[in-house]
Amino acid sequence: MPLVTPSETVAVLERHGLHLSSELGQNFLVDANVLKKIIAAAELAPGDVVVEVGAGIGTLTEALAAGGATVYSLELDRRLGGVLRETVGLAENVHIRLADALRFDLGSLPEMPRKLVSNLPYNIAGPLLAEWPRRYPEIELYVVMVQKEMADRLLAPPGGKQYAALSLKVQLFCRGKRVAEVPRTVFIPRPHVDSAILRLERMPPPIPAEEVGAFLSLVDGVFAQRRKMLRATLPKYLGQPKEAVEPGLTRAGLTGAERPEALSLEQFLRLYEEVKALAV
Hints:
This protein is an alpha/beta fold. Helix content is 39%, strand content 18%. The protein folds into 2 domains: 6-202, Vaccinia Virus protein VP39 (Rossmann fold), CATH 3.40.50; 209-279, rRNA adenine dimethylase, C-terminal domain (Helicase, Ruva Protein, domain 3). The protein has helices spanning 6-15, 32-42, 59-66, 81-87, 125-135, 148-155, 165-171, 212-223, 230-238, 242-251, 265-279; strands spanning 28-29, 49-53, 70-75, 94-98, 115-119, 141-147, 174-182, 187-188, 195-202. Strands 4-3-2-5-6-9-7 form a 7-stranded mixed beta sheet. Helix 9 packs across helix 10 and helix 10 packs across helix 11. The N and C termini lie far apart (64 Å).
């Protein structure tokens, strides 16, 4: 019986005497149509190497393996080790690692994954997507299910309340689109929020790799006071007087009255070039 059914999900958990942890963001998918949308968005091909974060009881793992991919599944909750050995442990193309994805080094795997396909635990989605596109250029495609508010933030255009430093950290590396909305009713236990499936295609960043850290430091620095104008936050960030900073703002095509949430990625990149010149 497929793991994606409510009855089988409950049966597996009961056989192992498990109760789910809200602290770990554990909500298991029990809808076959949503699962099919994730798999379709991943466009699996023979020879694909996929990493999954948050294997759970193996619902998505099973579907990925059935598509012919080599799957490396990371699961933090060690209680689920026995479940995964039962549900997907016999598949030759599935390799389970009981580990914290935020601390795990993908470089330690026998082969580097090219795709991340996951129903991401809610509590790590932001940190992981802020870090992995920068850390692992080998991953070309991210197909992830995240809570709807997180999806809105990741894809947000400038000017809205959802637009944040995280938006820029992802958009610097990825071109993203929303694949589907996912209601909370298709999970066990039912979360308090709806979700969305995103497809993020990695692109080379528009600045040299060695400068990415400095650029993101600028983004974090000004977004730390997102409601203040740049003419106030930028001198403080640079440790320079306003008079020294204002010409750089002008050359970047800015007045200084803008707030961080109003700047597009392209405007941030122009501002970064001026900040870099000021720091010389």
